[in-house]
Amino acid sequence: MPRSTKADKARQLNVAYRLLKRNVALPDAARRLVQQFGLSLRQAYRYLEEAAELNGPVEVAEATVAVTLKLPPTTVRALRAYARSSGRTIGVIVTRALDAFLGALRRHG
């Protein structure tokens, strides 16, 4: 059986979260996760435990491709500092910034 991707894990965690929010009993929720995703019962309970700690659904990230960028050291320091303070990865920050920039370009031609 292939390993789950980060996106797979996020989807499974979100289903577990929704089941808990609908007050589905833990054994029933675990069985549903097993049936829907082909998980082991043990793994289903792990997802339910993790989902119980969430404040809301997690973001399902699109698959990524590695790229190499050359940036000025001051920009890299600022980026790393922001990543630490925000709890986000550098990849997430750069992706959001580029999406906003490219979106603005499309809107303004």
Topology:
Elements: H1 6-21, H2 26-37, H3 41-52, H4 73-86, H5 90-108
Helix pairs in contact: 1-2, 1-3, 2-3
Keywords:
109 residues, 2 domains, mainly alpha, elongated
Provide a descriptive summary of the structure in words:
This protein has 109 residues and is an all-alpha fold. The longest helix is centred in the last third of the chain and has 19 residues, at 90-108. The protein is elongated. It has 5 helices and no strands. The protein starts with 5 loop residues before the first helix and ends with a helix. The chain is 67% helix and 0% strand. It has 2 domains: 6-52; 73-108.
Which range best describes the helical content: under 10%, 10-25%, 25-40%, 40-55%, 55-70% or over 70%? Answer: 55-70%
- How many helices? 5
Distance between the termini: 47 Å
Would you tell me the overall average pLDDT? Answer: 92
Content of β-strand: under 5%
List how many beta strands DSSP finds: 0
User: How many domains is the backbone divided into?
Assistant: 2
How would you summarize what this structure contains?
This protein has 109 residues and is mainly alpha-helical.
